[in-house]
Structure formats: C-alpha cells, structure tokens
Amino acid sequence: MTSSPPLTTGASTEITTALPWGSRVNRRGHLEVGGCDLVEVAREFGTPAYVVAEDDLRGRARSFLSGLRARHSDCDVLFASKAFPCTPVLRAICQEGLSCDVASGGELTLALAAGFAPERIFLHGNAKSEAEVQLALAAGVGHVVLDSLHDMERVERTAASLDLNQNVLVRVNPDVSGDTHAAISTGQADSKFGFGSADARAAIDAVASSPHLRLVGLHCHIGSQLLHLDPFRRAVAALAALGDYPVYNLGGGLGVAYQRNQEPPAVEDYLATLVDTAHDLLGRNKRLLIEPGRALVANSTVTLYSVETVKRNVSTWVAVDGGMSDNLRPMLYGSRYEALLADRPLQAGERCHLAGKHCESGDVIIHDVQLPDPAPGDIVLTPATGAYGYAMANNYNGVPRPPVVFVRDGEARLVVRRETYADLMSRDV
Description:
This protein is an alpha/beta fold. The protein contains twelve helices and 21 strands.
C-alpha cells in the first residue's frame, strides 16, 4: 500500500503527483483523469467544475480501512465529512465501509441521506446548538464528542428528555501543535476546541457521574495538513496520561501533496505510528478510531477553469472564470496549489499569476505558476481540490457554485448540478 501510485504517463516526473491516482497524458497530449479527457469534460459540463476520480476516492478509503485493520482488530475509520460534505462523495465512502463524523446538523443530514447508519455517526462541534443535539440524539447517532461543560450540559439535558443513555467521548486538547498554518492548528493550549489538560480530569469526572451520558473514551485532534509524524506520538502520550478508557479517537490531520515538492508521510507509516504508539502507551485491547478527511479526498479531485483574459503589465495575469467562490483556501490562509493546461500539461511555461474573476485584489488562486503561452479559451486545472473546495464554496459576486462530476473508466457523470441564477433567489421570501 502506498499513499500515491505513480502516474501512468510517458513523462511522469514532469507531472505533479498531486493529481489523482491513474492520471495520464493521452495520445492527443491531453490530461486524462479517471480515463476521461479533461478538455472533453470541460466541454460537456462547463467550467468551473469539480472533477472527482472515483477510483482514487474509493481506493484511499480502502487503504485507510484495510491498513488500520491489518494493525489493530478493534478499530474504525471515520470520514471527517467537513472536508467534502457532498452526498455522492459521502455515499461512495459509506459504501467502502467507513463511518462518519459530522460537525453540524447539516452534515448529519447529508450523512444520513448518503446511507450512513446513525450508530456509525459521531457528532462533533465546539458550539453545538440545542436543535442540532436534539436532531442527532433523536436520529440515534452512535457517539457525541463533548467539547465543553456547556456542551456536556446540553447533551445531558437532551438525553434526559429522550430518556436514553448517550455514548460520549471527551475531547481533550493535548497541548500538542503540528507544523501547520495557525488557522488549521487545533491542539495547542490556547484553542477554541476541547478541554485543556488542566480541565480534562474535572470534565471526565462530571461526565462519569451523569445518569444519561455514558463515557466510553477520549478524543483528540491536533491540526490539519501535518507532514511530520512526531506530533501524533505526543498526542497519544497526552491521552495516556489521563487514565484508562475503552475507546480512543486519535483524530485526523495527515497532510497531502498539493505541490510536487511536498512529500507527506505514506498512509502506512502514519497508521503504524498511531497504532504502535497506542499499543505501547494505551495497551492492545482498546478500540482505536481515526478521522481522516483531507487525506481521503484532497487528491481525488481537480478543479477545471476556462481562461477568460490574459493581461501583461508588470506581471502576466491569467484570469479564469472561478476563484475564491470555488476555492477560498489560497485567500483564507495562503494555501499553495499547482496548475496545468489540460491540453498541454507537459510543456514548459512562462511565469504568471492565476487570478480569479472576483472583485478582490486578493482573489489570486496561484502566484508564480508556470503556464505555457496561456490564452483565452484554454482549460486550466488545479489538482488536489477535493478537500475544502466544495465545502467552502460560496456565491461571492453572485457566482453560482460549480457542479461535481465523477469520472471512472472513461465515463463522466454529473452527480451535483451547477447552481443557476434562479437558485440564488430560491430562499427569498
């Protein structure tokens, strides 16, 4: 098992490994994903569009589940649905045997619609509303992750009103930070998430004394897009210091390759680190849970754009028909991507800035990218947009959100249609 099989191209070293598994350059010199020519996909479904390689999506789900089971029998893999809260994506992952974590009533509704059994759903969130807790417990979610004393009181009150005993985990802030952007670091002492080490014991005792909450274990999550494994070891050690419990949810956070110079740990190395550390510090008879999100879906997807204008002043500005409405990450916290032209991905390029269409100077998808003689009408793609592109999509400047297209074995199918201008007014009263 590897985290990313090589591309099947005649010049694989010249193409980014951020592309989905099995991507190739065909005889026409066009880039194919899922056996589909991306120029043809753009022509059929329009741009911008999220294009998901279904085999990549399912393959990564299987790699996490089989890899964890090979090392520890009592375990489960939960898809962190916030990464790509799209019903067809959730359905595919459910069909591969994974469970799901949700952080809102909306994500819960999507997970149920996608086929996840309620008992295989974990409810997260640092500010769950009364209505969300009521919805979750009435649906029969398997576990609720408690994030604060107010959260605990709300879940306890709702469980009492429904006359049930709810399985819960206490989210512990282990005071462990990974090397990542501050906006996606969650395990440091001063965080909005979880109980700090000084407060965790009191929270555990409070939950244990509740007649309607059943404490089954602890949860932690230290951040996202982590490219080193040592922080995961330290997080497990922090949980071990809090006592002995039957269930430990070790969170997610494994990073992915957004650019060719990034080398995230292989899935098998990540799993070995977690399981070996858990065996050493927690024992071998625990139920171990993990919550990959980004690492499951990011590299499954590319976003297609059409070039609208090319402007040369101090720099060369290549403006496309999308931007911060379909991928907010570069503007939100400086995320870096690569870009290719779908009909000439192997050609050397000129330095330019890939700009969005929105009325913000900061609406730049990629600074300093190499594109070969870009011109209006060219199809540009950015790889590794499966995580948080669709999730953060918005209607800035009244731009409709893009469709989602699944590609597999040379067939492309629409699974989420493009928004229309009428949709923009559908909630008006």
